[in-house]
Amino acid sequence: MKPKNALKGLDCRKIIYYRQGVNKKMKSLKGFIFDLDGVITDTAEYHYLGWKRLAKEEQMEFDRKFNDKFRGVSRMRCLDMLLKENNREVTPQERKEMAERKNSYYREYLKTISKDNLLSGIEEILKDLKQRGYKLAIASASKNTKIVLDKLDIRNYFDTVSDGYSVKNTKPAPDLFLHTAEKLNLKPKECVVFEDAKAGIDAAIKANMLSVGIGPTERVGHADFRYDQVSDIDLEEIIN
Ligand code: BG6
Ligand code: MG
Questions:
Q1: How far does the centroid of ligand 1 lie from the alpha carbon of residue 141, in Å?
Q2: Which of 27, 44, 75, 157 is the most exposed place for a label (fewest CB within 10 A)?
């Protein structure tokens, strides 16, 4: 898939400048930053089941379509969106308890995951990049990141791991990706971000990093590159 549909409607000279700009970004690539949920493994379903259980207990409306808005968004912000959608007002204590309850359900579902839950093709990509000498990192909004990486048995691939504890402002703010680049000792323009969430691509763009979206155009069509699924990713296209 070629970079951006934004080229449509630009004159030839602008297209050449645009491509030179993209190529410049690509030539200097030194690090690959991966989101976790939806890029490395599909834990979105477990997050959905956790929220669904909480919503049912609290007599709140919740469905898969609404759950899609939670991709890349922190636990507390997801809860606030759910409460707002249901016109529900709660005390700070109730809010904290509900978030903890959802997390305990999510953790219960996580017990069943193993290396088999890696998304098809992702381990080959990690091996390939590692062999080519690139630095690799995880940057996820999840506070369960380290537990999930250990369950999947892939922590060794990564030079550094940033998670929901690493920065105050999570996605769509660029902070998590900028923090990760700093830990890798790289400049933002030397990094490429793999993301399945709209909030994640927004964050990568704000961080001035090359972005690769995994998922439908409606969600990640604003990325520099987009693929329907991880197994479709063409590394040569991104690197060269
Ligand atoms: C992101 C998920 O990776 O982590 C979101 O895409 C989730 O759906 C967020 O809400 C926070 O996760 P956790 O594990 O800290 O509740
Ligand atoms: Mg994600």
A1: 6
A2: 27
